[in-house]
Amino acid sequence: MKKIGVMAVALSALAACSSNDTVDFMGQKCAKIATGDQGDILIKCPMTEDFAALRSVAADSMFLSVNADKVNFDEIAADTENAYVNVIPAGTFEGKGACYRILVNEPVFDGETMYTIEICEEAK
Questions:
Q1: Nearest CA-CA partner of 14 in 93, 109, 100
Q2: Where are the alpha helices (DSSP H) in 15-82?
Q3: pLDDT tens across 47-103, in order?
Q4: Strand order in the sheet with 41-46
Q5: Are the C-beta atoms of 51 and 83 separated by less than 8 Å?
């Protein structure tokens, strides 16, 4: 859990510079691959040790509004060379800043099973 705390600090220091097609996230250039109906985006980042550590944590959430109409969940689940992050700029809870939902290892996309870990910044 200490590693998760460190990652939360790293995420809170995130400078999410972006263009139309890419986002700088956790020191990586990540590709935007979908936009959800609620303004959230799904990005694909090269796998790093930090992402690998986060992907091994027990899931507690799902993508906000990026769904199977927007991306191929089977392809995402099979891709072990990249990390997928649902960026939620407005946050998900009152008093929270931006939230990041990182796809865990061996996700199950059945509409009921949790498949991401959520980390949120404190509201500013």
A1: 100
A2: 49-55, 73-78
A3: 999 999 999 999 999 999 999 999 999 999 999 999 999 999 987 777 788 999 999
A4: 22-25, 28-35, 41-46, 82-88, 96-103, 116-122
A5: yes
Those residues with Cβ within 8 angstroms of residue 91's Cβ, 6 or more apart along the chain or in another chain = 97, 98, 99, 120, 121, 123
Give which of 49, 83, 56, 47 is closest to 1, Cα–Cα: 56
Instruction: Please name every residue paired with 100 in a beta bridge, in sequence order, or none if there are none.
Output: 87, 119
- Dihedral of the CA atoms 67, 103, 83, 110 (nearest 10)? -50
**In the chain, what is the straight-line distance between the N-terminal and C-terminal CA atoms, in Å?**
25
Whether this model's pTM surpasses 0.70: yes
